[in-house]
């Protein structure tokens, strides 16, 4: 009896942790933006912002300085940091579907904000326009063939 209650509590704790993580969807082939702490304003006493992932650090930025790239792997030439601390990853592919963590050092506080990145392939604008036009004219049987 006690055992099952314990297991249940553990399960809830794990679920909370996962669902508490932000998820961002980027478009395949585009530059994707991964916001730090949901795009919240930078803390006043900000000292350092760092982006990292499970293979190591990507880039860091000291207060009032340009961000510097630390990655030496395939991310070396693809990452940059926006003024608002967002991580920018150029030419996104499905291999970029991972968790990136923004670390913010402000005063004596260190906060970490993990963000899960998902990459979607965008439908082309042409398809959407064609579908919308067909639906307006009211010829639903043609839609499937025209696409
Ligand atoms: C952060 O800055 C980038 C580049 O200027 C912009 O595209 C983006 O919308 C901004 N994101 C947030 C969360 O404010």
UniProtKB/TrEMBL annotation:
Segment forming the signal sequence: 1-20
Residue ranges of every copy of the Ig-like domain listed in the record: 29-104
Residue intervals passing through the bilayer: none
Record flagged with keyword Signal: yes
Annotated keywords: Immunoglobulin domain, Signal
UniProt xrefs under InterPro entries: Ig-like_dom, Ig-like_dom_sf, Ig-like_fold, Immunoglobulin_dom
Gene3D superfamilies to which the protein is assigned, alphabetical: Immunoglobulins
Coiled-coil boundaries: none
Keyword Transferase assigned: no
Official protein name in the record: Ig-like domain-containing protein
Species per Swiss-Prot/TrEMBL record: Coregonus suidteri
